[in-house]
């Protein structure tokens, strides 16, 4: 009886007759994406810009879109032969949508001038920024990455050690817990004015602020992880002859790791926010400073370019953290895929 | 398999003496007595079962023997020396296997050796213990990949790898399905016969106690005191259909006030 119900209620995969094969679907998907990108290229190249506007790199942008279209078409045809390229099929709908978005953007800015300038430059203006100002952008990425990495690492390490200490030792808990409760919830940016005159340089002040922003969630989550360890784990280890050191390093800490990673994740998010504020207000370098500087000159295309890079940087770092977690906590069931 | 009688204990286990052991908990300032002057003498290599209604304090008694808690009054001795804390010669197998989920089966079993710094010299014992419980092919599996019976076998291997003198079994088969349970009971007997440790089993299953133990101690309701002691001299391996075991079962149930159900 139940098997009959199963047969009936099982959702049918959409079938398109001869399109149903995965090879054919991959080909169709790839070619549609390629067509969409050729459309962007054609629209950019052949539709004249709004009169009195002067965008350099319009041709470059069109050529880049055309090249991408060509590559997608080749990939789609290669997919007929090599299954590796068929995996691109998953991306096809996104590539298609992205092309539509760019086409709309191009039309609304350079071609029709519907959006006010200088706030909404066309895509080729951003291409222009990347080509002409890449030196400053790369320097900005390095400056931001250096500041963030130092602050985050120090904050995460301190938070981890303090969290384990509070979770494990009653004495540490007695002295640190009230401080944590009182100062922890204060946004790290509130320390900014103080930090900039207490610390010898704006760089070290920013490291302190980023470490503070990272450290608080890492501390709290590590602490709750250690405090929440199943007491039977300790009983087992103790009857097998474990020392205190073993109980901390080999029982409490590994058992708390899933919590620690939640803390590291939250800390990373906090650290991005503080990084940008610190760069805007004190450190005269980095992507945050570039954003501020570009806005000051009303160079909005530069601002968008920096925002885009910043998004790549932050998203890349979060991905890295999740990869690390997937690797270290592969024993856990039901991990969220990033 | 060598047929051993209950009086013919294998050597290698340790003795256990309980002298007037009493214990109580503090529940919001109210004292809650759980153990009432329990005295017991367990010989080298003996298999003793503690049988009692659930919540009577059996597990508390085992925690005291393991050295995880100290009694409110009385003393516990092993080999004539007072039990002051946990020691790897007295290993507990809990009702829940409590394997560490972040370790593979192999490193779970390695836990005791690692904790005592013996991993390098006694590495080979882990393979032996895994073979003993029939988990050789699962050394690299994680606990969440094991069935309940396999997890409990792994927990048993984790205890046996330390070559305990006294194995403390806290309803170790309580959560298994009845078929796995019957198999594991047989395996427990042959392990005990081969390794020669003293075994102290807590259970509320009368058949299990009679199938495994040479002596069954019947405990009362909380606060637990010893109500009766029943010697079971049937030779190993025992058979579940043995009419003599059925007689003993009747006696035990009578002690527990359940003979009306017989």
Please give the structural blueprint.
The complex is a heterodimer of chains A (338) and B (262).
Chain A: H1 2-9, H2 22-46, H3 58-81, H4 83-86, H5 92-111, H6 123-132, H7 134-168, H8 170-183, H9 192-198, H10 202-227, H11 231-239, H12 244-281, H13 286-296, H14 300-328
Helix pairs in contact in A: 2-3, 2-5, 6-14, 7-8, 7-10, 7-12, 7-13, 9-10, 10-12, 11-12, 12-13, 12-14, 13-14
Chain B: E1 16-27, E2 30-42, E3 47-51, H1 58-66, E4 73-78, E5 81-82, E6 90-93, H2 105-109, H3 111-115, H4 119-122, H5 124-132, H6 148-160, E7 166-170, H7 178-195, E8 198-203, H8 206-212, E9 215-219, E10 226-231, H9 243-255
Parallel strand pairs in B: 3-8, 3-9, 6-7, 7-8
Antiparallel strand pairs in B: 1-2, 1-4, 4-5, 9-10
What would you note in describing this structure?
The complex is a heterodimer of chains A (338) and B (262). With 338 residues, chain A is mainly alpha-helical. Chain A is 77% helix and 0% strand. Chain A is built from 14 helices and no strands. In chain A, helix 2 runs antiparallel to helix 3, helix 2 packs parallel to helix 5 and helix 7 runs antiparallel to helix 12. Chain B is of the alpha/beta class and 262 residues long. Chain B contains nine helices and ten strands. Chain B has a six-stranded mixed β-sheet, sandwiched between helices. A four-stranded antiparallel β-sheet of chain B has the order 2-1-4-5, with helices on one face. In chain B, a hairpin with a 2-residue loop joins strand 4 and strand 5. The two termini of chain B are 34 Å apart. Classes of the chains: A mainly alpha (338), B alpha/beta (262). At the A-B interface, helix 11 and helix 12 of A face strand 6 and helix 3 of B.
């Amino acid at each position: 009886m139940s098997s009959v119900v199963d047969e009936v209620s099982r959702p049918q995969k959409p079938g398109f007759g001869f399109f149903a094969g995965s090879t054919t679907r991959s080909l169709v998907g790839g070619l549609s994406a390629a067509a969409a990108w050729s459309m962007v290229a054609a629209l950019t190249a052949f539709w004249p810009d709004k009169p009195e506007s002067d965008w350099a790199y319009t041709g470059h942008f069109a050529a880049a879109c055309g090249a991408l279209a060509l590559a997608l078409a080749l990939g789609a045809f290669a997919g007929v032969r090599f299954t590796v390229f068929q995996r691109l099929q998953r991306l096809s709908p996104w590539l298609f949508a992205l092309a539509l978005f760019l086409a709309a953007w191009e039309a609304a800015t350079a071609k029709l001038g519907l959006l006010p300038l200088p706030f909404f430059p066309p895509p080729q203006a951003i291409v222009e920024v990347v080509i002409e100002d890449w030196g400053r952008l790369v320097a900005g990425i390095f400056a931001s990455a250096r500041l963030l990495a130092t602050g985050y690492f120090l904050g995460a390490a301190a938070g981890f050690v303090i969290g384990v200490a509070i979770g494990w030792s009653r004495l540490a808990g007695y002295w640190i817990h009230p401080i944590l409760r009182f100062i922890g919830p204060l946004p790290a940016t509130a320390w900014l004015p103080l930090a900039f005159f207490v610390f010898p340089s704006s760089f070290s002040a920013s490291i302190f602020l980023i470490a503070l922003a990272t450290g608080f969630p890492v501390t709290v989550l590590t602490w709750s992880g250690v405090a929440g360890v199943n007491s039977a784990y300790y009983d087992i280890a103790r009857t097998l002859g474990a020392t205190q050191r073993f109980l901390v390093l080999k029982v409490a800490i590994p058992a708390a790791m899933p919590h620690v990673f939640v803390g590291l994740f939250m800390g990373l998010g906090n650290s991005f926010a503080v990084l940008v504020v610190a760069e805007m207000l004190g450190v005269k370098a980095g992507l945050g400073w570039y954003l501020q500087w570009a806005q000051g000159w009303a160079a909005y295309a530069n601002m968008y370019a920096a925002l885009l890079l910043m998004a790549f940087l932050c998203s890349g770092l979060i991905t890295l953290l999740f990869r690390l977690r997937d690797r270290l906590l592969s024993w856990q069931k039901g991990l969220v895929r990033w | 398999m060598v047929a051993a009688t209950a009086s013919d204990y294998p050597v290698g286990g340790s003795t256990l003496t309980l002298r007037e052991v009493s214990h109580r908990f503090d529940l919001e300032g109210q004292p809650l007595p759980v153990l009432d002057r329990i005295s017991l003498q367990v010989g080298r290599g003996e298999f003793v079962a503690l049988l009692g209604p659930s919540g009577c304090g059996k597990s508390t008694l085992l925690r005291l023997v393991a050295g995880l808690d100290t009694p409110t009054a009385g003393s516990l001795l092993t080999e004539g020396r007072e039990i002051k804390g946990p020691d790897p010669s007295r290993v507990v197998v809990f009702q829940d296997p409590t394997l560490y989920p972040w370790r593979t089966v192999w490193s779970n079993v390695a836990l005791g050796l690692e904790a005592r710094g013996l991993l390098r010299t006694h590495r080979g014992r882990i393979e032996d213990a895994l073979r003993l419980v029939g988990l050789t092919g699962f050394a690299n599996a994680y606990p969440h990949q094991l069935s309940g019976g396999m997890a409990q076998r792994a927990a048993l291997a984790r205890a046996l790898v330390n070559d305990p003198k006294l194995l403390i079994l806290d309803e170790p088969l309580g959560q298994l399905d009845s078929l796995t349970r019957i198999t594991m009971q047989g395996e427990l007997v042959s392990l005990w016969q081969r390794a020669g440790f003293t075994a102290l089993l807590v259970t509320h299953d009368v058949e299990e106690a009679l199938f495994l133990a040479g002596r069954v101690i019947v405990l009362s309701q909380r606060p637990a005191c010893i109500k009766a002691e029943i010697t079971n001299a049937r030779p190993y391996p025992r058979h579940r259909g043995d009419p003599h075991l059925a007689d003993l079962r009747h006696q035990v149930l009578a002690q527990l006030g359940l003979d009306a159900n017989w």
